[in-house]
Amino acid sequence: MRVDLFDFDLPPENIALRPASPRDSARLLLVPGDGAMQDRIVRDLPSLLRAGDVLVFNDTKVIPAQLEGVRGQAKVGATLHKRQGLRQWQAFLRNAKRVREGDRIDFGAGVTAIAGARDEDGGVTLDFEGEEPVEVLLERAGRMPLPPYIASKRPTDARDRSDYQTMFAREDGAVAAPTAALHFTPELMAAIAQAGIGTETLTLHVGAGTFLPVKADDTDDHRMHAEWGRIDAATADRLNAVHAAGGRLIAVGTTSLRLLESAAGEDGLVRAFADETRIFITPGYRFRVVDGLMTNFHLPKSTLFMLVSALMGRDRMQAVYAHAVATGYRFYSYGDSSLLLPGQRE
Asked: How far is CA 78 from CA 29, 66, 162, 176, in A?
């Protein structure tokens, strides 16, 4: 499909630079498969789902994966995006033309790395020197990797260390937050449990490729970046039991949805999964296991707007986003949310 079919006008004032406070006070646009949209707030979520439904969260934890360094006299920026080994990460480099294989980059605070070969995704392998775990080095020299549409408007600060982390964050490895889950609070989780709605967690380490624009003119020519995910066998069994009992699986965030669909077979059953996924969901995709999606509002012409268009229909989502823009919903990572419920799966 043509990428320009997924374009829309977004005024810059609709882009959120800080999250709502408290988190569950953010707006929530309910979008049923048929029927009218409803303007609600995240705190209403328990009343919008049914007892027996299960919300599926991503427990990945964002690491301070952005580094600023020098190679000789040249300034070099690095955003780590995928672990390759104990001390080796793939990274996207700013000013990459000034870096050759074998060059040492000094990131300050005693953190240095040797540049390796370029990879098929356009990144560079970095081998960190010394004996300390890379996570310790990043705590010393790194900063939170805010999305470019926020970082271009204000500097990263101390608040972002907590603001850009979900309450479910357990597994180190993401360089972008699963932002739909930023809206959840302990109080909201208690209300969800009281309503008879279950919860499960899985892990997908979100990579920096999620921020990259689609440069192709046709979706067939776009290559997704690989991201590593895991669903254990016990979790897969519980997820399958939800459907067997007549409940719905509601993915909290596109990362949870993409991993669930990667782990599901044609028979609609979730299997244990521990691998990379490059799944690219566009209109025409047949969803195997996911019954609904809670997600923030995405960029024009992005792979994530294509994903929600696959779930609900492109014309429907263009109307949804037009409503969101016109009524002042806040977009992107720190913005408001939507609850997409397409109806009965085939």
From this structure: 36, 6, 22, 14
d(CA 67, CA 197): 41
Q: What would the 3-class secondary structure string for 77-108 be?
A: EEEEEEEEECCEEEEEEECHHHCCCCCEEECC
pLDDT at 81: 84
pLDDT band at 339; cut points 50, 70, 90: very high
Q: Give the separation between CA 335 and CA 85, rounded to whole angstroms.
A: 34
125-138 confidence digits (pLDDT tens): 999 999 998 989 99
Chain length of the chain: 346
Helix residue ranges, H only, the chain: 45-48, 134-141, 148-151, 158-163, 186-194, 233-244, 254-263, 303-312, 314-326
Q: Which amino acid is at 54?
A: V
Q: Mean pLDDT across the stretch 40-65?
A: 97
Q: Is 246 left (phi over 0), alpha (psi -120 to 50) or beta?
A: left
Residue 336: name the closest of 41, 2, 134 by CA: 41
Instruction: Please answer whether residues 46 and 125 qualify as being in contact, where contact means their C-beta atoms are separated by less than 8 angstroms.
Output: no
List the one residue out of 102, 130, 128 whose CA is nearest residue 117.
Answer: 102
pLDDT at 346: 45
Taking the C-alpha atoms of residue 216 and residue 224, their distance in angstroms, rounded to an integer, is 12
Half-sphere exposure of 98 (CA within 13 A, CB side): 15
Where does the pLDDT of residue 82 fall: very low under 50, low under 70, confident under 90, or very high at 90 and above? Answer: confident
CA distances from 148 to 3, 55, 213, 248 (A): 21, 29, 11, 34
Assign 158 a pLDDT band (cuts: 50, 70, 90): confident
- Tell me how far CA of residue 308 lies from CA of 71, 86, 186, 225, 300, in angstroms: 42, 36, 27, 18, 12
Radius of gyration of the chain (CA): 20
